[in-house]
Amino acid sequence: MPLTAPTTLAPRITYGAVLGSPYAARLLGGTLIGRLPNGMAPVAILLWATTSGSSIAVGGLLSALYGLASALAQPVKGRLMDRHGQSAVHLPAALLNSALLVALPLAGPYGGPGLATVLVVVGGLAAPPLEAGLRALWPSVLPDPRLRHAALALDTGTQGLLYIVGPLLVAALASAYNPTVALAVTAALGLVGTAAVALSPPSRRWRSERFEDQDADPSRRLATPAVTLLFVSLTGIGFAIGAMNVWSVSMAEHHEQDMLAGIIPAAASAGSLVGGLIYGRRTWSGTATRRLIVATAFFLGGWLPLLALPAPYAATAAVAVPGAFLTIVVACAYVTTDALAPTGRTTEAYAWLILSIGAGQAAGTALAGRLAEQPLASAALPAAGAAFALAVLLAARRRLSPTGHRQRGRRRRLPVSGTRRPDHECQHPTAFP
Which of 315, 341, 407, 418 has fewest C-beta within 10 Å? Predict the structure, then answer.
């Protein structure tokens, strides 16, 4: 089931052209820095809790609450951006999030676990929605759809670095100083990165297209069957990632090699980065929906070798394969979401996509934790999540295809010349049915 062959008519895309476009490097770099707390805060909170006298269970609960609150608030913050602009949401959210992270060490002496829980939950709710915001900015920053295609792949592929660099940075700061310093640095990076994005001209100027009474008009509703099925499928993608993280810990314990708990997820993230860089440099024929389904099939196939319970080195190499296709899955899921979402609610739709993957990841982590003592079941869970995603996508393919739905309230996007544009760049696959 091969990916459709790349077209040969258009010249190869370069990432230098993407990053050389006005504001592109600033927005991508600022978003990555501003999102480092996503990988740093849970670890810093856990370390602070344990060094403050709390048990690992309490620290783990606080860490989980921060991540869960951040994920659950994404759609609300996305909708606020659609209505009020990006800077109006990013800056207050970053200020509140950073202030609460810095204030967290005061919870021990003055408020105990109750105050710590409140600070962690509100801090998670206030985490700035930089990922959804950046995806909404690319069309205005990069009018060339081929450059947008490359930027989206680069953006998606580099996300894994957040969860490699972030925990390592926290561990280094906590070891050299203490977890309080790690929390302060986490807060500072989030504020600096968010400010770099929110104060940029594209972010300050950005406004979503709006329609009156869009909630009352069925054509403006986001929760259509096609959108719902797409997001349900993405929970399976997140489930696979969450299960893989726990499986890596099980591998580390089974083989008595603690480093495997970090090396295996790092290998998957490295595969995601490499896969994204390769994918983004090519232009591909066919629709984003077809590419999404094919990439999910390869994503599923990449997990199957784990059923053989491979040795540590083989397991580390094996997870790089599904990691390489993860970027393609997520990138095309964003494009499909953009095509399905009604005008004026694109950022909110992106936020629901993020929440869907996050919810699946939490479920995969929870179930894998219960099955960690059963090697075969634990190794099979990532493939089970990917199989679920593929099954839902195959069942929904007609609804997600260019002819399977209408552009509900979305204005058709025509090229400047007025000619019809082929959908080889994985951008807006339903604009020209």
Answer: 418
